[in-house]
Amino acid sequence: MSVKKISKKQPEYFEFSKENLKNVKKIFEKYPKERQQSSVMALLYLVQGQNNNWIPLAAIKYIGKLLEMPYIKVYEVATFYSMYNLSPVGDYFIQVCTTTPCMIRGAYKLVEACKEKISSKENEFVESKKCSWVEVECLGACVNAPITQINDDYYEDLDKEKMLKILDDILNNKNPKPGSYRGRRNSEPENNRKTLIDNKNA
Ligand code: FES
What we know:
Blueprint: H1 18-28, H2 40-50, H3 57-66, H4 71-80, E1 92-97, H5 100-104, H6 107-117, E2 131-136, E3 148-150, E4 153-156, H7 160-171, E5 179-180
Parallel strand pairs: 1-2, 4-5
Antiparallel strand pairs: 1-3, 3-4
Helix pairs in contact: 1-2, 3-4, 6-7
The structure holds FE2/S2 (inorganic) cluster (FES).
């Protein structure tokens, strides 16, 4: 698991755009008036969307004020979940799951591919600033292990060769297709196998 890296370069100021202030209003409507602090995760996610996929400390303070919540409590949430980035990431942000199911299906081979094509260390940019990578905990798609999340998409059933090809495509301005790389639709069984119908001990 990677250690959460907090950027040394921080903007002094953050505020939501007009459009996001409307979104904040909609989020607040989902919670009872005395429970507005429950929207902290959604607001942090909005910050990230507005700020090139990372959350500066000024935004954590801003959210604290908005929710009348101590700064440290917002900071605790932002530092706990791997979905929040506290330092700049590449335009293509590559998250390799290395939790047990992915690990035993070869996740560290995907890490090797990232080290070869992007950078030997996590959170460092490839020269063009196009990509950065990080190891993360379970992404909730273990049945298609090993998997990688790139921005909002999942790339599944991977091996090192396929991962290298995906990274090459990204670095050459092509858009690799998300989903299974063994031809499965979602998490269906391979070869049209129907568990407990034809095969004993399936
Ligand atoms: S262990 Fe990798 S998605 Fe769950």
